[in-house]
Design a protein that fits this description.
6-stranded mixed β-sheet; about 280 residues; alpha+beta; Arc Repressor Mutant, subunit A; about 45% helix; 10 strands; Jelly Rolls
Length: about 280
Amino acid sequence: MSHLTLYERHLKPGAEWDVQLPGRAFVRVNHGAGSLLLPESSHVLVEAEVISAAHSSRCVIRASMLSDLQLDYFYVLPELLTGILTLPESHQLQQASQTSRVDVFPDSHPVAEEFTTLARQARTDDHLAARCAMVHLSVGHLRGAAPAVPAPTRPALSAADRIGALVRRIPAAEFQSISANKLAREGGCSVRHFSRLFKAQFGVTLLAKQIDLRLDRARLLLLETDAKIIDVSMDCGFQHPGLFTTMFRKHFGVTPSAWRKRHRRPSAALIRKSAGMQKKN
């Protein structure tokens, strides 16, 4: 499966679905009746309601014994939105997406209304509009759930302030190839001092962060395209395929080809039918 893709799931009467999707999942009740089962409570679902849950959430959806339950869902991985997020923004949204809190939005809530609109767009093959709507919905929700980032209380005069302001305005995608010399020059400090400041803020060196971003981009290309492994390697800045495979395995636990086989969606249409129907209990 792929993030920012609308899927469908059909539960027969009495069937259950343990909602464990990567990143942050958003599930909409399209038709039918059922219940949301949480460790501490339950909630009767009605049409057009939307559930937001993290991978770590203990969240089960059960269809009514009297009718089928049809669901639309998608999930988002903030670390793959490197083209539009800065490093602090990506870190903030990743933290929010991992919280185990489960939210339920009624049909009149803006989140539910946006989901209804994007589902309609997807079904009319307006794929770009649907994906943009998914980004808008998920980022808006996660920003509201994330810890607030305090605004600077004084002008950015120190090198640390200048580096922080610089990092906040540059999209994460640009960090994949930007040099420490250029960042240090724009921050008005030496490369050595910049390196200390960067590591103090992110806990890793610039090179380590760049490798993480390149590997996240590689993961996205493996998921979304049919590009050969060697081409993915080159496109993400790894000149030697062997080194790329080694670093990918170290980061994700499997080789690029094995990861693609495990996670690759079966076709290119935006709306997917979930593999297999749930059996009635």
